[in-house]
């Protein structure tokens, strides 16, 4: 059993705990919160026994094998760094770090702790329907590009309109549309098509300088990928991947609910239907497999690590193309 602790007391942590326990590979041992009260009230929402609430990272990282980090983006780096130094495996929510300088520090540190595994929780690329898309791409005659969409109105935007600055719409917390929902289409694009040769981001900025929504382009040698994402409006568009005459349509690039293949004659086939209630189960299982057998699964681990690194670089390149600066960019390493 992998004894794990968690950082973050929001709904996503609850969902990860349920997924991890459902795999049968993990046992929840500690919950970190900035306050004992919030930790206890979070614990009351779970059905688990023998779990300690801790309020310091040093208490959290004693006696556990792995930590799941779901704090605001800007905190991921420091919390991951301290975990690695304590010999604790890390599953960190997307995006791993605020910029490539932080990612590179993590990469260097991992060479000193070769037994520690570091994973980015990009749940959709671990789902069975993502493999369906990858396999079906082999049937496209000549790739013509893609349009990937993830735009969902956020209740945190209501808070922003009411005069607050929620973490997820703040550059002080390395956030905004690109570093939140934008991560899903970017992850899918890079996992499917590789790293682009150039990128451009055209955001709609909020008055605090964070991006509320935007359109991005990833340029490849023979095709382009268009990305639409945001937190200030709802979109019901499907994502699409184009062959010459064939199209793969994806109902929602983050959830991968339904995958439809339209052949060159216009016939449509449902080739993938999501069946599980908790979309985090597959990543939890994939990460457990690597921790349980790091030698056998070394190639897979390396591929995910390199993918995380490329996504991190692409997020930064897109952000730089739009002159969006984070507070974290001012740090020196
Ligand atoms: N994979 C997914 O589907 C998915 C979905 C949602 C979010 N996420 C990711 O999960 C992470 C957390 O997102 P979220 O929306 O849950 O964030 P959040 O609500 O802003 O914060 C998460 C937790 O961090 C702690 N926290 C909040 N503000 C803090 C501050 N100023 N300083 C230190 N700790 C603070 C709080 O726990 P305590 O008060 O108990 O300390 C809170 O429960 C992000 O990286 C996001 O991208 C992933």
Helix and strand topology:
Layout (H helix, E strand, L loop, with lengths): L1 E6 L3 H13 L2 E7 L3 H9 L7 E3 L2 H4 L5 E4 L6 H10 L3 E5 L6 H13 L5 E4 L6 H10 L7 E7 L3 H7 L21 H11 L4 E8 L5 E9 L4 E7 L8 E4 L4 E4 L7 E5 L5 E6 L7 H12 L5 H24 L12
Parallel strand pairs: 1-2, 1-4, 2-3, 4-5, 5-6, 7-10
Antiparallel strand pairs: 7-11, 8-9, 9-10, 11-12, 12-13, 13-14
Helix pairs in contact: 1-9, 4-5, 8-10
The structure holds NADP nicotinamide-adenine-dinucleotide phosphate (NAP).
The site of NADP nicotinamide-adenine-dinucleotide phosphate has 19 residues, from loops.
GO molecular function: nucleotide binding
Organism: Leuconostoc inhae
Pfam families: GFO_IDH_MocA (PF01408)
Which strand order do you get reading across the main beta sheet?
A: 8-9-10-7-11-12-13-14
How much of the sequence is in beta strands?
15-25%
The pLDDT mean sits at 97
- For the record, what is the CATH homologous superfamily label of the largest domain? NAD(P)-binding Rossmann-like Domain
- One letter per element, helices H and strands E, the order comes to EHEHEHEHEHEHEHHEEEEEEEHH
Radius of gyration: 20 Å
Number of strands: 14
How would you describe what is shown here?
This protein is of the alpha/beta class and 333 residues long. It has 2 domains: 2-121 and 280-330, NAD(P)-binding Rossmann-like Domain (Rossmann fold); 125-273, Dihydrodipicolinate Reductase, domain 2, CATH 3.30.360. Helices cover 34% and strands 24% of the residues. It contains 10 helices and 14 strands. Helix 1 links the parallel strand 1 and strand 2. The chain is globular. The mean pLDDT is 97. Residues 8-10, 12, 33-34, 38, 70-73, 75, 93-94, 121, 123, 167-168, 180 line the site of NADP nicotinamide-adenine-dinucleotide phosphate.
């Amino acid at each position: 059993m992998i004894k794990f602790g968690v950082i973050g007391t929001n709904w996503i942590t609850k969902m990860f705990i349920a997924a991890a326990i459902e795999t049968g590979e993990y046992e929840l041992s500690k919950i970190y919160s900035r306050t004992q009260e919030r930790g206890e009230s979070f614990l009351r929402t779970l059905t688990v026994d023998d779990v300690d609430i801790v309020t310091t990272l040093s208490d959290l990282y004693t006696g556990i094998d792995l930590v799941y980090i779901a704090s605001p983006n800007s905190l991921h780096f420091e919390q991951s760094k301290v975990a690695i130094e304590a010999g604790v495996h890390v599953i960190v929510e997307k995006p791993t770090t605020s910029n490539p300088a932080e990612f590179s520090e993590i990469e260097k540190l991992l060479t000193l702790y070769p037994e520690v595994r570091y994973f980015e929780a990009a749940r959709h690329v671990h789902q069975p329907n993502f493999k369906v898309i990858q396999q079906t791409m082999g049937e496209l005659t000549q790739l013509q590009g893609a349009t990937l969409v993830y735009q969902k109105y956020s209740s945190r935007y209501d808070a922003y309109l009411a005069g607050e600055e929620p973490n997820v719409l703040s550059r002080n917390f390395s956030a905004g549309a690109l570093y939140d929902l934008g991560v899903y289409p970017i992850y899918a694009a890079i996992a499917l098509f590789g790293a682009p040769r150039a990128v451009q981001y055209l955001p709609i900025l909020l008055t605090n300088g964070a991006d509320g929504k935007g359109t991005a382009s990833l340029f490849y040698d023979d095709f382009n990928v268009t990305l639409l994402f945001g937190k200030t409006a709802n979109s019901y568009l499907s994502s699409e991947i184009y062959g010459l005459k064939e199209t793969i349509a994806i109902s929602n690039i983050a959830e991968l609910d339904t995958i439809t293949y339209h052949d060159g004659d216009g016939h449509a086939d449902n080739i993938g239907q999501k069946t599980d209630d908790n979309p985090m189960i597959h990543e939890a299982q994939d990460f457990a497999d690597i921790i349980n057998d790091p030698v056998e699964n070394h190639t897979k681990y390396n591929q995910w690590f390199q993918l995380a690194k490329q996504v991190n670089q692409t997020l930064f390149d897109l952000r730089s193309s739009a002159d969006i600066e984070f507070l974290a960019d001012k740090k020196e390493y």
